[in-house]
Amino acid sequence: MQLVFASSNKNKISEIQSMLPETIQILSLEAIGCHEEIPETAATIEGNAILKANYISKKYGYDCFADDTGLEVAALNGEPGVFSARYAGEQRNSDDNMNKLLDNLSDKNNRKAQFKTVIALNINGKQELFTGIAEGEITPEKTGTKGFGYDPIFQPLGYKETFAELSLEIKNEISHRGKATQKLINFLKKTL
């Protein structure tokens, strides 16, 4: 079975492909000839996942799934949330985003945060949503070289390491994307 993953983030694509059974092959946007930027104009993480999945289904006719992820920091009223990728500006630079977040938290004691991923799956003319949440806190400084995005400053609950210090296997088990993807996989196994 082939499913389009409506993402151009190679890190995300390989992370999710590594979790799927061999019977499901992920096609990237590039593979289906989609080179345009898919609009992410919704006010919620769920809304952006739905927008992206619907865009591919309507324009290209493929069964597909799309995800959107946000980092929600309690002391910042849920920021950066839906703006996580562009928190420090349109350049979408992870270091700039982390630096801005650490700066905004510099005078805060509460460093609780959660990553939230929502996957919208469009398959056989129906849509399903899968949500995964990873709770933790923001560390005072960046540590670790693995992962991407905010991984070097996010320490998941029950761990002394950041996501950027954990192996991909452990991260996939406990991460927001891992949890949402596991729900997607369970659904696909029942459906196929």
What this model shows, in words?
With 192 residues, this protein is an alpha/beta fold. The chain has one domain: Maf protein. The chain contains five helices and seven strands; from the N terminus they run E-H-E-H-E-E-H-E-E-E-H-H. It has helices spanning 10-17, 45-60, 94-104, 168-174, 176-191; strands at residues 2-5, 25-27, 64-73, 79-81, 112-123, 126-138, 154-156. Strands 1, 2, 3, 4, 5, 6 and 7 form a seven-stranded mixed β-sheet that branches. A hairpin with a 5-residue loop joins strand 3 (64-73) and strand 4 (79-81). The longest helix is centred in the N-terminal third of the chain and has 16 residues, at 45-60. The chain is globular, with a radius of gyration of 16 Å.
